[in-house]
Amino acid sequence: MSIDYDTDGDVARITINRPEAMNAIDSAHNSALEDAWRRLNGDARIRAGVLTGAGARAFCAGADLKELIPSHHRAVRAGSRTPWSMGGITLEPHFGKPMIAAVNGHALAGGMELALACDIRLCAPHATFGLAETKWALIPGAGGTQRLPRAVPLGWAMEMILTGEPIEAQTALRIGLVNRVLPTDELLDGAMRLAAAIASRGPLAVMAARRAILEGLTLGLAGGLCNERDRFVEIMKTDDALEGATAFAEKRAPEFHGR
């Protein structure tokens, strides 16, 4: 049982490795996942990440109902205002490096919220997605009520959250929750290739574009366009932007250094 952290060039892979419990997150794994995520974002050599689960049954079944949920429940009833987060990832609205979720099975409750906190989602054909909290007289508390309506049509978000019923992979693809459904044995390689493609682009440009997209969701069109213009000007001043134009003119592959 662990949170595994591996690197392949400038891509990091985080694996929730608790398959005997459907990769559910208890307190120890929650802390370890946050450490792994902070490690990824603190390493200047890493430009993109992939999040997945061990085994073929589950990506993550959410918070451990026998340990993490009861402990937080007791703390809240005692007056604590401790933030509720899955591995630190779900608290971050705009920052961090691009993340791809390789959903290799059930993504339920907090597990789905982890997937929603990633920028891009790929899944296996047998994957399911669900926010089941209302079945247990709770509501999604790690971003589910905010990120799902931004990822799929409002009616689908309402149905999934209010009923707590999961959807299958093909439905997730149809409503735009996932980008692609890949054969199970190709899923992780597909996610790593996509992350590598992102990592090969200008790193400052990728981060600025990602932030402009996410901030623009709350700024409205006029505010978002102003924000985009500011970031565009900032990026135009970088050495990487000059290198990109030079490499294009010289018909060679660019060499970006993040400056």
What would your notes on this structure say?
The chain has helices at 27-42, 68-77, 110-117, 144-151, 154-163, 169-174, 184-199, 203-236, 239-250; strands spanning 2-8, 11-17, 48-53, 58-60, 99-103, 106-108, 120-123, 128-130, 167-168, 180-181. α1 (27-42) links the parallel β2 and β3. The chain contains nine helices and ten strands. α3 (110-117) packs across α4 (144-151), α4 (144-151) packs antiparallel against α5 (154-163) and α8 (203-236) packs across α9. A six-stranded mixed sheet has the order 1-2-3-5-7-10, sandwiched between helices. A four-stranded mixed sheet has the order 4-6-8-9. It has two domains: 2-199, Alpha-Beta Complex (2-enoyl-CoA Hydratase, Chain A, domain 1), CATH 3.90.226.10; 203-250, Lyase 2-enoyl-coa Hydratase, Chain  A, domain 2 (Orthogonal Bundle), CATH 1.10.12.10. The model has no long low-confidence stretch (mean pLDDT 91).
The CATH H-level superfamily of the largest domain is 2-enoyl-CoA Hydratase, Chain A, domain 1
Q: What is the CATH architecture annotation of the largest domain?
A: Alpha-Beta Complex
- DSSP strand content: 15-25%
What structural category do the secondary elements indicate? alpha/beta
> In one word, what is the shape?
globular
**CATH topology (fold) name of the largest domain:** 2-enoyl-CoA Hydratase, Chain A, domain 1
Record the strand order, biggest sheet: 1-2-3-5-7-10
Q: How many helices does DSSP assign? A: 9
Number of strands: 10
Number of domains: 2
CATH class of the largest domain, named: Alpha Beta
List low-confidence stretches: none
Major pleated sheet: 6 strands, mixed
Give the SSE order as H and E letters.
EEHEEHEEHEEHHEHEHHH
Helix content: 40-55%
Radius of gyration: 19 Å
Average pLDDT level: 91
Spatial separation of the terminal alpha carbons:
39 Å
